[in-house]
Amino acid sequence: MKGQQSWAELYAFEITRADDTPLYRQVYLQLRSAILTRRLRPGTKLPSTRELASQLSVSRSAAVAAYEQLLAEGYTSGRHGSGTYISSDLPEPIEGSAGRRKKPVPTINSDASPMESVANFIDVTVQSDQRPFNLGRTLIDARTTELWRKLSARTLRSLSPSHFGYSDPRGTIELRKTICDYLQAARGARCDPDQIVVTTGTQHAIDIVIRVLPGLDKGVWIEDPGYPLTRQALLAAGAKVSPIPVDGQGIQVATGIKSAPNARAVFVTPSHQFPTGVVLSMARRLELLAWAQEKSAWIVEDDYASEFRYGGRPLAALQGLDEGERVIYIGTLNKALFPGLRMGYVVVPRPLLRAFVAARYLMDRQPSTLSQAVVAAFMEDGYFAAHIRRIRLLYRDQRDELVAALKNRLGADLSVNAPDQGMHLVAFTRRGLSDVAIERAGRQHGVIVRAMSRLYVGAAPRSALVLGFSGYPRQAILPAVERLAQVVEAKSKPPRVKQQFASAKRK
Ligand SMILES: Cc1ncc(COP(=O)(O)O)c(C=O)c1O
Predict the structure, then answer these.
(1) On the chain, which terminus has fewer CB atoms closer than 10 Å, C or N?
(2) 495 pLDDT more than 60
(3) What is the dihedral of CA 242, 247, 249, 255, to 10 degrees?
(4) CA distance 109 to 132
(5) Dihedral of the CA atoms 210, 211, 213, 215 (nearest 10)?
């Protein structure tokens, strides 16, 4: 058998000379214990006696004696010239060791840990799960994949000492400059590279914001319905969360002022409200900015999918309207490119910058220099803009295919409009159909749709299906809509008993 990874070289021996136990026996006992508890696994190659003796500063004869005893007792097998290996046919591992089923670890009481209730909520979209119409999936074409390979290889070839060391917690200046140029041009943002902090994405940015903003325990507004990960992050941090209803113009600022006047911040998705897709109207934007200015409160703008705009005039970021430095702007490359990248950025108002950078530094010091170099090259060389142009067309086609199929096959049960932007659409159910029941039944038929009513906290929930269209090639869409139609039709048929009752009544 080929030796497994040689972790034995790194085994943390504790040899003591103050002990009466002979050194060879200490080595023997520790190795035997590591073998029995499976901390060193069967098949692992042990270091040579010469290496071990030198590593532990014991005599070679002590190492040889320990190995001979392990061999004699069957814990190891030696092959001439190829070293000593831990035997593959060992007795059962001893109690509490890694190989045996452990006693279940009690879970933390949910009252004691807010994270425990968050854990119940985790429902990750994994890219390998190809069931339409899950959210958060992106498509990457062959051109981008190939470019990514080339740029990564180029970056690896031109590594400089700066790639290997600690660097600015905000990210490299090259990447921050590029992001700043992009935001000014594409999103009408007001920024300077100094104010940009590179993060691993929106979630990381939200976490830093929550650590930095003062007084969130006094109140913070969120959109209702809204993005569950923002709400959960706030709840987990002990914030006093006030869900504020969203209507056709976006978050109802006046309701927020009335119902939670002491709020210190608001988290919003103004360009494409999640999940409804509503755009925050200009009147509401100005109202929100005026409130923040007057109360010295903060607006956290989550601008998660503005790259994918299919029609109409692109809306500038709310941050671009802000003259009082009250908006913290969060952008992500995990949607524009791919979620596995884990990269995003924040434009931090100057009064918060020092605290923000300090919080980021305490969390994980800095972003990875290598990934930043690849992304900076991708953006600077014009590939990012080209990628967005190509993928936007792809997503637009997928959106159109999905809307047409839904209207055609499910027009009587669902009301759907093509969104101008983003990667998902909302289909309102008709005739009293329950989105939750469709969500549940859909899963059994290989279709993932999200019930929008679940995303409401306090406001009256509307029944609708949230369908992601970005991650599914056109040819996957029709068959999936067909499966969805079967699910919806089964739900919309009156139960048999009722049918009989109805026909009996007619007679
Ligand atoms: C409202 C909203 N913001 C941001 C994101 C992106 O999050 P991240 O950058 O952490 O991947 C998503 C992804 O689904 C989202 O729905």
Answers:
(1) C
(2) no
(3) -40
(4) 36
(5) 90
181-199 as b/e, with b when 16 or more CB fall inside 10 Å? ebbeebbebbbebebbbbb
Could you give the CA distance from residue 303 to residue 183 in angstroms, rounded to a whole number?
Answer: 11
Which residue owns the Cα nearest ligand 1 atom 12? 304
DSSP string covering 389-421, please? HHHHHHHHHHHHHHHHHHHHHHTTTEEE---SB
Tens of pLDDT, residue by residue over 478-488, are: 999 999 999 99
Positive or negative, the CA dihedral 166, 171, 173, 174 is: positive
Convert the pLDDT of each residue in 96-133 to its tens digit. 444 455 556 555 555 556 676 666 556 667 777 788 99
419 C-alpha to ligand 1 centroid (Å): 18
- Is 227 touching ligand 1 by the criterion CB < 6 Å? yes
Cβ–ligand 1 contact at 75 (below 6 Å): no
Mean predicted confidence (pLDDT) in 245-256: 98
Count the neighbouring beta carbons within 10 Å of the beta carbon of residue 255: 17
Q: Residue whose CA is closest, atom 15 of ligand 1?
A: 304
Beta carbon of 306 within 6 Å of any ligand 1 atom: no
What does DSSP say about strands 241-247 and 220-224: parallel, antiparallel, or unpaired?
A: parallel
- What is the position in ligand 1's atom list of the atom closest to the CA of 269? 1
Judge if the upstream peptide bond of residue 275 is cis by omega within 30 degrees of 0: yes
Atom of ligand 1 nearest to the CA of 135: 14
Compute the distance from residue 500 Cα to the ligand 1 centre, in Å: 49
Distance CA 89, CA 357 (A): 54
**All residues at 6 or more sequence positions from 366 whose CB lies less than 8 Å from its CB, including other chains:** 166, 167, 168, 169, 171, 360
> Ligand 1: distance of its center to the CA of 338 in Å?
11
| Ligand 1 center from residue 492 Cα (angstroms) | 33
Provide the Cα torsion 237, 299, 350, 371; round to 10°. 70
- Residue with CA at minimum distance from ligand 1 atom 7: 202
Mutate which of 246, 251, 269, 274 for ligand 1? The one with the most ligand atoms within 8 Å of its CB, which is 274
- Ligand 1 mean position, distance from CA 136 (Å): 8
Instruction: Sort strands 196-199 and 344-347 into parallel, antiparallel or unpaired.
Output: antiparallel
Digit-coded pLDDT (tens) for 196-243: 999 999 999 999 999 999 999 999 999 999 999 999 999 999 999 999
More confident residue, 398 or 115: 398
Residue with tokens 């067309």: 393
